[in-house]
Amino acid sequence: MSPVVVRFLGSGDTFGSGGRFQTCIFVQSAAAGFLLDCGASSLIAMRRFTVDPQQVDLILITHLHGDHFGGLPFFLLDAQLVSRRTTPLVVAGPPGLRARLRDAMEVFFPGSSGTAQQFALDLLELPPHTETPVGPVSVTPFPVVHPSGAPAYALRVVCDSRTITYSGDTEWTEALLPAARGADLFICEAYFFEKSVRYHLDYRTLLGRRADLACRRIVLTHMSEDMLRRRADIALDCAEDGMTISL
User: Fold this and answer.
1) Hey, how many other C-beta atoms are within 10 angstroms of the C-beta on 133?
2) pLDDT tens digit sequence for 39-62
3) Architecture of 5-237 per CATH?
């Protein structure tokens, strides 16, 4: 069985704490290459870590904040004007994705949303709690608690018989339990070390529910300066930009 390789191209928070790129995780399997989220700095991160955008067949979006989906206009324009993409691309995310992407493209590059691509672009809005085949992977979205003007999801992705769950951004919610259960890798945000705030997770809460999550491995991401200062006190794995994991 060929390995599934997970590369953290961007592991930072909204504000680039620690000089990290915003959320962008590249997963490569024998069947497909796909991104989990595409923050505004994602295309820069891909260049930095030599990931060819042509390797990306699918982009999965957890929610519609700029540090998680704001790289899509740049990715699509690069595909049209620089990479000269000809292979199909699927972008899947929560309800509201189509309208928000159109609006973002018009804000950043007026007129760009009406330009016809030279490649097939399929935009999918995923229903909650429903396992949906998306190309060679299957995706199950779990609604979480993070207002973004549209539903926010944790995503459970099955690819080449491996399961990767990504929390997106959320405060603690019991929805994370079925999302993470049995996963080979649970990528989870941990914004603060022990400070409890609305709409984000803290490390202490997550550690206290570690056994309940029942996943094989947890890697923390989306960490603030507060978390980065406490790295020596953290018992779970922490992502770094450029970090690679084989499953």
Assistant:
1) 9
2) 999 999 999 999 999 999 999 999
3) 4-Layer Sandwich (3.60)
